[in-house]
Write a structure and sequence with these properties.
Elements: E1 6-10, E2 16-17, E3 35-39, E4 43-52, E5 64-71, E6 76-81, E7 91-101, E8 106-114
Parallel strand pairs: 6-8
Antiparallel strand pairs: 1-2, 1-3, 4-5, 4-7, 5-6, 7-8
The chain binds zinc ion.
The site of zinc ion has 8 residues, from loops.
């Protein structure tokens, strides 16, 4: 099953938020949680990246490439990288997977490969 991560569009001014906010960052008038969820696009551009070691045990992998990706709609998201030699400006394509699991809960995130 394909999963999605959702951004939230303000019904009053159309501004798109990720992650979710209680009040619209643009018009500030949306106090009734009037947002429409909208799946984030999967394609984007890698802006910057780093490699993490010695992760806590609840991560699914021993080392982790983490990148900040600007998606097609301009939203920036932190995601896991599955790329041998990442480079800034590289086109990437993401998939939503379990990135971290605890005893009863699984956390989904975006994992990016070279496009
Ligand atoms: Zn708004």
């Amino acid at each position: 099953m394909k999963r999605d991560i959702y951004a939230y569009r303000c019904r009053k001014c159309g501004h798109l938020h990720y992650p979710y906010r209680m009040v619209c960052a643009k018009c500030g008038e949306n106090e009734h949680n009037e947002f429409d969820p909208e799946p984030l696009p999967k394609a984007g551009t890698l802006l910057t990246f780093t490699e993490l070691y010695a992760l806590p045990g609840d991560f699914e992998v021993p080392t982790l490439g983490l990148g900040i990706v600007e998606l097609e709609n301009g939203i920036r998201i932190t995601g896991q990288l599955r790329i041998d030699e990442p480079a800034s400006g590289m086109k990437v394509i993401g998939e939503v997977e379990v990135v971290r699991s605890e005893e009863y809960e699984k956390y989904y995130g975006m994992v990016f490969c070279e496009a």
